[in-house]
Amino acid sequence: MPETQWQEFWQGLNELMTDSCVGLMSNQTALNMMKAYGADVMIAEMFTPCSALLAHTLDLPWINHWPIAPVEPFFTSQWAGSNRRLFQTNPISYFPQFRTKGTGPITQLLSLWQRIENFAVSWYWVWDDWRTHSKVIHSLYKRYDFNPELPEERRRQVMTIAPVDWAAEWLRPITPNFKHVGSVLAGPGKPLPANLEAYMTEAGERGVLLVSLGTAVLLNQQQLRSMAAAFATLPCKVLWRLTPKEVPDEAAIASLGLGSNTQVQTWVPQNDILAHPNLRAFLSHVGINSMYEAIYHGKPVVAMPIFGDQPTNADRVVAKGFGVRVSPTQIGTPAFGEAITEVLSTPRYTKAAQAMSVKIRARKNTPVQEAADWVEHVIATGGDPYLKTPEDELSFVVRNSLDVYLIVAACCCIAVLAAKAALQLLLSRCRLIVKGWLADGSRPYPSFTPKAKPS
After folding, report:
1. Which three-class secondary structure state does DSSP give residue 285?
2. For this UniProt entry, which segments traverse the membrane (predicted)?
């Protein structure tokens, strides 16, 4: 997504979140109903600034339901007064930052140039947070005289639950109160509607490619026609989900010039389609739920990220070996069809996807059970934030040991200056001694006359 569109997106989102928060906080009837309910804990999403404010108003501990893994530093604000405070360890030497592109495939074994970019990107997000988010959040909190920096307010957020699995994430240290519970939406497939079951079954050994690119960004008609032309050349059937805005009627579908192997639907039960044995691959925007549903069912992915966390997800699809990446700008070029063909014709992608499926399924409790257990744990402990590490209690200077570095640097400077002064004093004394010797004609060492060699 171009930078201008990115900024417009965040500006619009910030306005939406602020307006909705003001509406809620102005609705005294709704607030009274929530207070009267007598809840023990609140579950909310940290990204909206109203979560911390509402927890304060209701006087409740709260659990942050975070829909993706921690993406540092984008989801931890370094500026005082922000509600986005995950404070996970951010090892930029091997943890790719949000939207780090690099000069080659992104893995956790970053090249020198990728690490340089990683460093620059991490500080870009600190600046972008100040430019885009912090002013809006500060203005909202000032309106309600709310200070999220108070220790009692920081301790209200006792835990974060994320529906992700280590098998598909970049590995890194995380704090004890951040729980990866696994994908709560992916699960065993249910029977398909009769028309879809017939379509999948009729594919036989040819199999089916599922195409679904989400609903947040719509493709233009030229892109859709180019995709249809590429699908028509594939050896398998294609089940293509498009939104009603993209194909409002049968005439719009007909205008795409679909091949005989392609069927368009405006809705499909994605998880159930992915579970079908005749599904061979998935062309996806790799939103977090789509990626995990593909992993759960062991299906290889052609990742075509568009915005948000999708490029980061696509990097992991490639790094973990269960798919390839294609750009929306490649639609209409040979590279688009070649990427799909590679996944369909290369068994190693399917094998890698099936291995990933084993990793996220091999657990005693389901992700839903895991999440429920932690919610019940927070209730049983009365919202005690005992799992939180001290980062959230520390200032930026203390948290990053800048005061310690300053003192160590000062001590080093003092030691260097002292050594320099001592050396200068020693040299000056030596010069005085030498001058004294030269003035009275004395020698600094005994005279020495070599002995004559015997004849």
Report:
1. coil
2. 404-427
Looking at residue 132, its pLDDT comes to 79
What pLDDT, on the 0 to 100 scale, is given for residue 376? 97
Which of 11, 63, 49, 112 lies closest to 384, judged by CA? 63
Task: Return d(Cα 371, Cα 161) in angstroms, integer.
Answer: 7
Sheet holding 323-325, edge to edge: 262-265, 237-241, 208-212, 279-284, 301-303, 323-325
Write the DSSP assignment of 29-87 as a string of letters: HHHHHHHHHT-S-EEE-TTSTHHHHHHHHHT--EEEE-SS---TTTTB--STT-S-B--
Contacts of 433 (CB under 8 A, 6+ apart): 444
Q: Output the six-digit token pair for 55.
A: 């927890």
- In Å, how far from its chain's centre is CA 78? 17
* Tokens (6 digits) for 276: 């079908």
Predicted confidence (pLDDT) per residue in 349-391, tens digit? 999 999 999 999 999 999 999 999 999 999 999 999 999 988 8
- Residue 198 and residue 175: Cα distance in Å, rounded? 48
Sign of CA dihedral 57, 58, 60, 62: negative
Report residues of the chain scoring pLDDT below 50: none
Residues 42/60, Cβ–Cβ less than 8 Å: yes
Q: How far apart are CA 113 and CA 115, in angstroms?
A: 5
Determine whether 39 is exposed, middle or buried from the number of CB atoms within 10 Å of its CB (0-12, 13-18, 19+): middle
Among 455, 294, 396, 389, CA closest to 73: 396
Find the helix or strand (DSSP H, E) in which 283 lies.
Answer: strand 279-284
Architecture of the domain spanning 194-361: 3-Layer(aba) Sandwich (3.40)
Structure token digits, residue 153? 């307010």
Q: What is the pLDDT of residue 453?
A: 63
Tokens 């209730």, located at residue: 379
Which positions ≥6 away from 409 have C-beta within 8 Å?
none
Annotate 168-223 with DSSP letters as a single string: GS------TTEEE---SS-----PPPHHHHHHHHHTGGG-EEEEE--SSSPPPHHH
Strand order in the sheet with 157-162: 42-44, 62-65, 157-162, 178-180
d(CA 24, CA 14): 15
Instruction: Quickly list DSSP for 303-371.
Output: E---STTHHHHHHHHHHHTSEEE--GGGTTSHHHHHHHHHHHH-HHHHHHHHHHHHHHH--SS-HHHHH
Q: Centre a 10 Å sphere on the Cβ of residue 63 and count the other Cβ atoms it contains.
A: 24
Sorted by sequence, the CB contacts under 8 Å of residue 369 that are 6+ apart come out as none
